[in-house]
Amino acid sequence: MTKEPLFSSPLVRTLTAVVGCLLVSVVMTAAMPAYLPFNQGDRIAGPTLLFPFVWLAQFFYTAMSRSIKRVWGVLVLLLISHGLLIVWALRGS
Amino acid sequence: MTALWIVAAITLAVLGTRLIAQNFSQNTAPNESNLFRNLGLGLWVISLLSTHAIMPWAQAVFTWLGLLSLVGIGWVFLHPKRRRTE
Amino acid sequence: MSTNQRDQLKKYYVLHSWVGVITGILLFVIAFTGAMSVFARPDLKLWANESLHSPSKITPDTVAELMHQAVLQSDPSYQAEVHAFLPGPKVWTNLVLILEQDHDQDPDAQALWYEYDPRTLELVKQWQGHHDDLFEQRSQDMSDFISGFHADLHLGRLGLILTGLLGLTLMASIATGLFIHRKILKELFTFRPDRSLRLLLTDTHKVISVWGILFHGMIGFTGAFLGLATVLLVPAAAFVSFSGDQEKLLETFTAEVEPERSGIHASMRVRAVLEDAFNTPGLEPLRMSVYGWGDKNALGYVDAVHQSAMPRETHAYQMIDAAPLGMTTSFSKVGGISGPILDAVFPLHFGNFGGLPVKILWAVLGLSTSLIALTGMMIWVERRAYGSEGQLARTQYLRLSRLTIGACAGLVLACCWLFYLQRLLPSHIDQGFFAIWGLALVWALLRRNDYQTSRQLLGASGLLLVFLPALDALSLEQHFFNNPILSHFNTMTFCLVFIGIGLLALAKKLPTQRPQQDHKTNASTNTIDDDVSDMDRLSAAGDRS
């Protein structure tokens, strides 16, 4: 029986952790003011302060998850949902 | 006066660290260890209050946490554990 | 421990070591220069500029007169914004007046720059040009160089992104470190310097990391925020809420708002406003700005630091009668929970909220962050070059070790050399700094024995510091040797600190070669000897499985 490697798809995983997480976190920071239920200041400044933690959570998920496909699924879902929220918010304004 | 409060805060932080360090020593029974730990924590709190005597709470908490980090590092480096203890 | 748990731990360990080794040298560079930047303003600026050692003629009267004079001799279109940067070790060494055209309306708006020597009030520089080129006019000294290098490595936006990302990876390293070190409380008090080199390194790494965890975490978070704020976070925040208009976002939340012009002329009571700010107990004014100069509705703002407050304060005035309109902090208009946090980010990162004692504390803790990076790199190399983890030839790992020593000890040498550059070649600070750093790096790469190299580079740094007061004596009128009490307090303190640190660096006997009493790394030894860290055990367990 061959031993499963500790990290599957290391190259894709590294690229996702370096580029993908940053991209998704920035898009989330841009979109979060559209749905956060705070006052105007907190709604806009809050996501910028949360950014390091949002990135950290995604980075760990990308690194630690067994399946890179699942990682991609979650990141793409976050990207699309927040992208749509941005479009919706911009149209509304 | 400020200098006195600074000296008090540092001294109390050192003494508190010294007592808490006892908690990790093999030479003390568990009950004694707890006593040392609680006394040490008490001294840390008074050290925080001394820091607050010279600056507002927000600044005092951050300053005291920084001070405690430095005192801890200094204490451990100056009192190395040369033998294994358990 | 189940296989699953062990695999998880091993993943965290691999993540910790690889994130660490990739960012280690850069983290040392940023942390070391950060520890120096804590003193950049006012202390290093005061040391670097002799003009600040003499009495200044800056008073509310003289500043007001010069502002009125500058406005009178310029075209009325330059009265949209009039700024006076008061000279001092916290801003610039000379009094700088800036008059701007309305850059909100006109992208080609021009600006005027008048610079006066605070000792004589003589005009020493005058410039007119595009609004965007304004801040390139300021002269740079070593304190600006080192704080700028810490912020963006002098690489502009790319540098800001790099330092911001480094803050994020520091947070990731701290989190992974916490996951893999299960016995964190025990590690608070465990330091065994006499057992083996690897144990000395791992215990040092862990003691500094665990005791200072809140500081390192705070530095990582605030560093990530400060690095990425202007390049990523503010544009992202403005994207939805202000349709991408960053100017509008900043106008909404910053303390200074422009007045509605009435078109009715009025005289500006600059002197009365400055007097009020100068006479407020504990307040140190840094800048005064007037928006809508000459208009009845003109507003004035005095940007200042208060000795008992954490964030910077902005005091607003009605310019027609110098009536105070209240005080705001940089982000008090944001309000909620975010406002106070944003206000605290900058002072917390640089430790400028509690005077010199806090600065000393922050600088030493900053040095401890750089030591974590250095010991982490050394552990990584040790485990691979002399342990069981490496897959490459030992020489490859030793090459990385030489690079680390050259970059890190070379940076220390270059930072000490920076003081000489300030006195001898003040207009070539950046070239001189990078030349010495580069030479140290090449020297380290060419040498075989890194222990000897680090000894030599740190010894040279110590020598530079010890002789620095002598250089002061040769280049300054008033210095430690001819006027120890009356010479500027700052210079005297610096002399003593330089001699102290220099002697310490020279007296510290670093080993000339790698200690040979390395512990055995076989599994049976590991189980009976608590020498071996959690990481070693994990690694050994992984190898056995």
Tell me about this structure.
The complex is a heterotrimer of chains A (93), B (86) and C (545). By secondary structure, chain A is an all-alpha fold. Chain A is 77% helix and 0% strand. The model of chain A has no long low-confidence stretch (mean pLDDT 92). By secondary structure, chain B is mainly α. In chain B, 77% of the residues lie in helices and 0% in strands. Chain B has helices at 2-22, 30-52, 57-78. The N and C termini of chain B lie far apart (45 Å). In chain C, strand 3 and strand 4 (123-130) form a beta hairpin. Chain C is 58% helix and 10% strand. Chain C has helices at 3-37, 40-48, 60-72, 142-152, 157-180, 184-188, 197-211, 213-241, 246-253, 270-279, 338-350, 355-385, 394-424, 429-446, 450-475, 489-507, 523-528, 534-544; strands at 81-85, 95-100, 110-116, 123-130, 283-291, 299-306, 313-318, 323-329. An eight-stranded antiparallel β-sheet of chain C has the order 4-3-2-1-5-6-7-8, with helices on one face. Chains B and C meet through helix 3 of B and helix 6, helix 7, helix 8 and helix 12 of C.
Brief overview, please?
The complex is a heterotrimer of chains A (93), B (86) and C (545). Chain A is mainly α. Chain A has three helices and no strands.
Key features of this structure:
heterotrimer, B: 86 residues, mainly alpha, 0% strand, C: 545 residues, alpha+beta, eight-stranded antiparallel sheet
Radius of gyration of chain B: 14 Å
Encode the helix/strand succession of chain A as letters.
HHH
Number of strands of chain A: 0
**Quaternary structure type:** heterotrimer
* C-alpha termini separation of chain B: 45 Å
From the N-terminal CA to the C-terminal CA of chain A, the straight-line distance is: 59 Å
Summed over residues and divided by their number, the pLDDT of chain B gives a mean of 86
What is the radius of gyration of chain A computed over CA atoms, rounded to a whole number of angstroms?
16 Å
Our estimate of the beta-strand percent of chain A is under 5%
Helix residue percentage of chain A: over 70%
Structural class of chain B: mainly alpha
How many structural units, i.e. domains of chain A?
A: 1
The SSE order of chain B reads HHH
Which outline of chain A best applies?
elongated
- Can you summarize the main beta sheet of chain B? none
Biggest β-sheet description of chain A: none
